[in-house]
Amino acid sequence: AQSVAQPEDQVNVAEGNPLTVKCTYSVSGNPYLFWYVQYPNRGLQFLLKYITGDNLVKGSYGFEAEFNKSQTSFHLKKPSALVSDSALYFCAVRDKTGDTGRRALTFGSGTRLQVQP
Amino acid sequence: DAGVIQSPRHEVTEMGQEVTLRCKPISGHDYLFWYRQTMMRGLELLIYFNNNVPIDDSGMPEDRFSAKMPNASFSTLKIQPSEPRDSAVYFCASRGEGKIAKNIQYFGAGTRLSVL
């Protein structure tokens, strides 16, 4: 089975400061990892993904995430937060191996990021 | 492409009524997913299709829920009869298999369902 944990319900950060949103995962094989963002009354939007290669992945809006296999983590980061980054962030995982039945993503519970001016 | 299109955006109905939610995936995508989002349970996968065939419906909460995909450009999620605890936002998402789009799910704006 695959699972994702986002240990923080909410993260508060001041505008201009760096931000980190934490995510850990569990899969039986190698993972595909994703971050999505949800703005109020909208669907989820893809931010970035890790499939293979460099552990540091760069995505949309200046976000990046670092894949750490030994810690089974995929934390989302941004060097300088903006008020407009305030939203709900979801981490998701899929087992890279396995049959068609395991092609769906498993999402974390979400972390609300609040950036204060 | 207009993206994943869901209708209606909002649905208010009374307990016991039948509710049908609709989804048009992105053209060329061969995976379609239905999710439900609530404050209590977060984002739950209900069912997904590959090439119009249901692959995994283990997330469908009970027999009152059913989903169909009669062709590559249309899917429905039906609740019959509806109950107040079905109130949630229902999302549809689609995904392609090609090298560029692979593994990225694109979500619709959702249908907010309120069952009174």
Kindly list the characteristics that best describe this protein:
heterodimer; A: 117 residues; mainly beta; 6-stranded mixed beta sheet; 0% helix; 51% strand; B: 116 residues; 7-stranded mixed beta sheet; 4-stranded antiparallel beta sheet; 53% strand
Determine the N-to-C terminus distance of chain A: 41 Å
Helix-strand sequence of chain B:
EEEEEEEEEEE
- Sheet having the most strands of chain A: 6 strands, mixed
- Which overall shape of chain B is indicated by the principal axes computed on the Cα atoms? globular
Instruction: Count the DSSP helices of chain A.
Output: 0
User: Averaging pLDDT over every residue of chain B, what do you get?
Assistant: 92
Largest interface: A-B, 23 and 20 residues
Low-confidence stretches of chain B: none
Shape of chain A: globular
- The helix fraction of chain B, in percent, is under 10%
What is the number of beta strands of chain B?
A: 11
